[in-house]
Amino acid sequence: MSKALIKLKSKQEALEKREKAMKEKLKKDKKRLQARIQKVESAEKRRERKRDTRKKILIGAWVLAQIESDRKINLDGEKALMKELEKFLTRKIDLEIFGMETK
Question: Which of 40, 71, 82, 83 could anchor a disulfide with 66, C-beta 3.0 to 4.6 Å?
Fold first, then answer.
């Protein structure tokens, strides 16, 4: 083998080694990013479950208030419920959960 051929082979091996190292680094980066994405998605799901639970609690509180005051609950759909809740809710954060303007 000539010196030039040996030199080319050596360069090729070095390039392949560097390529392999880069590939491994990219795989590690990909795993790390996937873990971060999973963490963010989990946090979003947790927040949404908390928000949904809070909505249920507030609707339940409204229903109990109606029962305690001997009022009939006569609702015709979601719009009617939202109107009643808008009158009932006082906290800004509770109104925002239902997408209502603050008072």
Answer: 71
